[in-house]
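The authors assume throughout that readers already know how a fold can be written as discrete tokens. A single example would do more here than another paragraph of explanation. An entry of this sort, consisting of the sequence and the corresponding backbone structure tokens, reads as follows:
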Amino acid sequence: MMTQTTATIDPKEAAHFGAMAADWWDPAGSSAMLHKLNPVRLRYIRAAIDRHWPGHEQAFRPLSGRRALDVGCGAGLLAEPLARLGATVTGLDAAPENIAAAAAHAQGQHLAIDYRATPVEEMTDSGFDLVTSMEVIEHVADPAAFVRALAGKLAPDGLMILSTPNRTPLSRLAMITIGESVGGIPKGTHDWHKFLTPDELTALLEEAGLDVTDSSGLAFDPRSGFTLSSNKAINYLLTARHK
């Protein structure tokens, strides 16, 4: 049961994404943009894993024996690849509709993923080796409290990876003006004023006792789609660990 005293979930945001649950796994559906982003995010995550836990760079399952937590998992677009990389995965989402869609899809893929419609602030488990939260922090009511909650779930030698849009004129143009009109992003998905700059997110992570160890931009190339880039003007990823 969600209580507003502890959860940073915005009910309107949860309802918005819950309404997208039915076609989340359709590459041409309402989550088409996430399908396009996912391969690039996975490349970044795999590189971060290999740096953090070296010696398994050629392994198909470098997360074997490790626990992963994906917060704001939607219908499992990231949780499933993490499970295939060998992790024991827990996925949290504010929308029960998303959790139902995620569980059904995982079952069809013969993947054992622990999906819960539970706010991270109210989850009792901790000590996760990997904590991920992709395109989520810009939708929560209290970003600082959300980051503290994520940090509280991370094992002492754990790895955290976050992605979010930057708050720049270019991100407003790309993600809202264009993205929510012709780019396949459902209208009303983003509030540009809630976007965090890399400096702002880094400060929140540091206040929560974490050090940012790596970052990368996500850029769009009309010829090849989304790519990792030094340009963080539209979207970016950060890697962090306990100080």
